[in-house]
Amino acid sequence: MKQLEHPDPDEMTLTGVLGALSDPVRLSIVNQLAGCDERGSSEFDCDIANSTLSHHLKVLRLAGIIQHRKEGTRCFVSVRPDLEKAFPGLLASVLRFHQPVQN
Amino acid sequence: MKQLEHPDPDEMTLTGVLGALSDPVRLSIVNQLAGCDERGSSEFDCDIANSTLSHHLKVLRLAGIIQHRKEGTRCFVSVRPDLEKAFPGLLASVLRFHQPVQN
Questions:
Q1: Residues of A in Cβ contact (< 8 Å) with B87
Q2: Do B26 and B60 touch, CB atoms closer than 8 A?
Q3: Interval A43-78: pLDDT, tens
Q4: What is the distance between the alpha carbons of residues B21 and B37, in angstroms, rounded to a whole number?
Q5: How far apart are alpha carbons A18 and A22 in whole angstroms?
């Protein structure tokens, strides 16, 4: 199975990261990932269509925030360590203010 | 002269703030403001048209990041204290990684 494209660390930009985080669903996804090693890409607690979830995961991946790992027919997602190297502490500073949407 | 609209503090959102900061010009404007009390709205070091600058200032204002103060025919801009109250430390965490564009 083909691995998905990830930007090089020197292609990651502060504005790109902020833009990718400027959406409630994407912020929720990253918040869920921040507390675990990795998660199956279909295991997020988001009440949205699979195609919409895929779109949000792609935006986060292309900004350098998350990484995808394919294993057989499954896909696993995690926060990309390069993000912390490029912008140490930034993600924690943002997630500190994240308030999960009440259903 | 009519004062411009500013959102109530409870209308400010984390995603709105991140979105407004996810642009190199707007990040540069906020970075220039962070080091001073206030600045004339035409005194920014940005190589862009006045109309474009006005647009960026409006986006920042409607996100709750900056405030406008009109005095006679002049307009002054500053970082809005409500931002720090709503998201303490967030702006500093972001600006830490801002690198001015090299001309």
A1: 97
A2: yes
A3: 888 788 889 999 999 999 999 999 999 988 889 999
A4: 19
A5: 6
For chain B, first and last CA: distance in Å?
36
pLDDT tens, B53-90? 999 999 999 999 999 999 888 899 999 999 999 999 99
Neighbours of B43 (CB within 10 A): 11
Tell me the per-residue pLDDT of A24-40, one tens digit each, with 9 for 90 and over. 999 999 999 998 889 99
Cβ–Cβ under 8 Å, residues B96 and A93: no
The minimal CB distance from B90 to the residues A24, A27, A97 is found for A97
ipTM of the complex: 0.91
Three-state DSSP class for residue A6: coil
The CA distances from residue B5 to B40, B51, B62, in Å, are 18, 18, 8
Q: How many Å lie between the alpha carbon of A19 and the closest alpha carbon of chain B?
A: 5
Q: With contacts defined as CB-CB under 8 Å, which chain A residues touch B90?
A: 93-94, 97
Pairs of CB atoms within 8 A across A/B = 50
- Both tokens of residue A58? 């792609």
Does residue A40 contact residue A75 with C-beta atoms inside 8 Å?
Answer: yes
3-class SS of residue A1:
coil
Cα B98 to Cα A34, A87, B6: the distances in Å are 23, 10, 25
